[in-house]
Design brief:
With about 110 residues, this protein is mainly β. Helices cover about 5% and strands about 40% of the residues. The strands form two sheets. Strands 1-8-7-3-4 form a five-stranded mixed sheet, with no helix packed on it. Strand 5 (about 60) and strand 6 (about 65-70) form a beta hairpin.
Length: about 110
């Protein structure tokens, strides 16, 4: 697998859902049953501070990783731009980057 690039654009104070198909180098579905997923959002990329941990918001299914960030979490974000990545971890503990990119948060006006 090669990491794909995707820029997320969540709206502050709203649920955010992203379904990520897992495919091999040929573009065919790749089964990741028994694997786990992890991810972080940071700004800047080399910061020791994590803006948001994605681990609890990721679910691994047969050939898909589901990302679901609840409105309660995004409503707390005061930052507007950052970077992220999501990694898959095989049963032996070896990580493979699945997705990477920027996060652009659209600020909430109505509270």
């Amino acid at each position: 697998m090669t990491a794909r690039r995707y820029d997320m654009r969540p709206e502050q104070g709203s649920d955010y859902h992203l379904s990520i198909p897992v495919v091999n180098a040929s573009g065919n579905p790749f089964t990741v049953t028994g694997w786990s997923a992890r991810g972080q959002i940071r700004h800047p990329i080399d910061s020791d501070d994590v803006l948001y941990e994605l681990d609890d918001d990721l679910t691994v299914e047969a050939t898909t990783v589901e990302l679901y960030i609840p409105a309660e979490a995004s409503s707390e974000w005061s930052w507007r731009q950052a970077v992220y990545d999501i990694e898959l971890v095989d049963p032996d503990g070896r990580p493979t980057r699945l997705l990477e990119g920027f996060v652009f948060v659209s600020p909430e006006v109505t509270r």
